[in-house]
Design a protein that fits this description.
Blueprint: E1 5-9, H1 13-24, E2 28-32, E3 44-47, E4 50-53, E5 59-60, H2 62-71, E6 82-85, E7 90-92, E8 97-98, H3 104-114, H4 121-140, H5 153-158, H6 168-172, H7 179-184, H8 205-213, E9 215-218, H9 223-235, E10 239-241, E11 246-252, E12 255-261, E13 266-268, E14 271-274, H10 278-284, H11 296-299, E15 307-315, E16 324-327, H12 332-340, E17 351-354, E18 369-377, H13 388-405, E19 415-421, H14 423-430, E20 462-464, H15 475-493
Parallel strand pairs: 1-2, 1-14, 2-10, 7-16, 14-20
Antiparallel strand pairs: 3-4, 5-9, 6-9, 7-8, 11-12, 12-13, 15-18, 15-19, 16-17, 17-18
Length: 494
């Protein structure tokens, strides 16, 4: 087919994936990124020799990442050093430490020791959730641009296994009776920014994917993936223009015809791919009246994920702690309710700590460590004001919890450099609508056809990639969104 010009707004994981695939297929690709570096929330934060991933730190379904490089005619192993983590992570409850592993025998022995009487449920978990995954995964690779797509054979085949009337926490009760053990397989709902008591049961495939395929780490941090994708895109002929924010999508007769940059430059394009945060894009990137279904006044009525309070800590000490660790609130259900129901800050919070220096010495000076801390909190819809005093107070509470519940007893004394990101800063500095770190919620009525579609339903020649479109948030699904959109774009432009 004749070469087409594709303008891509945003050099996040979705935009970069689409760029390298389409450039490899012979299209002229121009990527416009607001920040001075690529990656979006998958970018590298560098402070005095310490390196931190801005957002994603768990790499699962690595085979999807490898497929994306293959789509661009490249081998991911030539660009990235990928290391499996086993045990995958440490789960710290008030009275129990649990180290999930992909070794099924060791996992069963650990359950037998810590949660006697529940060990038989592990085999049933693997068997049932493998069946659900095998049926659901093909559905996640399809586009749902038309209502009739809900009647496609893969989805109809999977439908009886989706347990639409049940929650993630509820379905895990089929395998494990002890609450702490069930929580160990449901905390993954945080990847979707949801409560395990509200998260659809179908997402039980996420813990299955972790246990079946494992979790990996990329040497230097997951931000290296974005750097590698940018190198591939450039190699294939794409141009990536950083520090060039887009002001709006240009439209004519209901179809995109290019983009206008903040500096006034206008670029003609045959198609536009939007990798900006979905809500932010709907608020800012289209002229008034162009967007109706997803108009700004309707956006707030949708369900959104929680936000996160972030600490990036460069320490002049190295701790012998897990690479990934989740410190659960003493009352996890109450903590989740504070976030998603009552829109208030919990004193009894859950904290995720990534101590990647224990396995990757490249991200900090010798003998030092780069520690990443994430605390789920209510998004900006809550009305919580993150002024300087509140941020400082919450920071102290988070550090006190880490000191109390981990071996990092003197963590505050060893902070050499630090950075904080609050929900308010996710809005102001990273253009996240409502500071919802995991984008639109993943309830059944906001999935598949009912989620913003890869072939955007409101404006022709516009395609969406990222966590705000199908299949949803998380690196593997964001990569898949880019492949779906790239394929649709080619079909439409032929």
């Amino acid at each position: 087919m004749p070469q087409k010009h594709v303008a891509i707004i945003g050099a996040g994981p979705g935009g970069l994936t689409a760029a390298m695939i389409l450039a490899h297929r012979g299209h002229r690709v121009s990527v416009f990124e607001k920040k001075p570096v690529v990656g979006g929330r998958n970018a590298d934060i560098v402070m005095d020799g310490y390196h931190f991933d801005t957002g994603p730190t768990f790499l699962m379904m690595t085979f999807v990442l490898r497929e994306m490089f293959a789509e661009a005619g490249e081998n991911a192993n030539e660009y990235l050093t990928i290391k499996p983590l086993d045990p995958m992570y440490k789960l710290a409850f008030r009275d129990t430490e649990f180290w999930p592993t992909t070794d099924r025998k060791k996992m069963q022995e650990q359950i037998m020791r810590l949660f006697p009487g529940n060990e038989r449920g592990l085999d049933l978990f693997y068997k049932t959730e493998k069946r659900r995954y095998d049926l659901m995964y093909p559905c996640l690779k399809k586009d749902y641009s038309a209502f009739s797509s809900l009647y496609c054979r893969p989805l109809l085949k999977a439908l009886p296994h989706l347990a639409l009337h049940r929650s993630l926490f509820g379905v895990l009760g089929d395998y494990f009776k002890q609450e702490v053990l069930r929580l160990s397989f449901t905390f993954q709902a945080k990847y979707l920014g949801m409560s395990p008591w509200e998260c659809p049961a179908a997402f039980a495939i996420i813990p299955y994917i972790e246990h079946a395929y494992g979790i990996d780490h990329v040497e230097g941090g997951l931000s290296r993936i974005s750097d590698a994708m940018a190198r591939v895109a450039l190699k294939k002929g794409a141009e990536i223009r950083c520090s060039r924010p887009v002001k709006r999508v240009l439209t004519k007769n209901g179809r995109a015809c290019g983009v206008e940059l903040v500096d006034g430059e206008k670029i003609d394009a045959d198609a536009v791919i939007v990798n900006a945060d979905f809500g932010h894009a709907m608020e800012t990137l289209f002229d008034r009246g162009v967007i109706r279904k997803w108009a700004p006044d309707r956006l707030r009525n949708k369900k959104y994920s929680c936000s996160t309070f972030m600490l990036y800590l460069g320490l002049d000490k190295r701790y012998d702690e897990a690479h990934h660790q989740i410190v659960f609130a003493d009352d996890y259900a109450a903590n989740i309710a504070d976030i998603v129901k009552y829109n208030r800050l919990s004193n009894d919070m859950s904290v995720y700590v990534r101590n990647a220096s224990v396995t990757d010495p490249t991200i900090a000076p010798a003998g030092h460590s780069a520690v990443y801390v994430l605390v789920p909190v209510a998004n900006a819809k809550s009305g919580i004001r993150w002024d300087g005093e509140r941020t400082a107070e919450y920071r102290e509470k988070v550090l006190a919890r880490i000191a109390r519940r981990t071996s990092m007893k003197d963590i505050e004394k060893h902070i050499a450099v630090e950075k904080t990101i609050t929900p308010a800063q996710w809005v102001s500095d990273y253009d996240l609508f409502l500071g919802a770190t995991f984008n639109l919620g993943h309830s059944i009525n906001q999935m598949l056809y009912f989620r913003p579609r890869n072939r955007f339903e409101e404006v022709g020649n516009v395609y969406l990639v990222g966590g705000g479109t199908h299949p949803g948030s998380g690196l593997p699904t964001i990569y898949e969104s880019a492949r779906i959109s790239a394929n649709l774009l080619e079909q439409d432009l032929k």
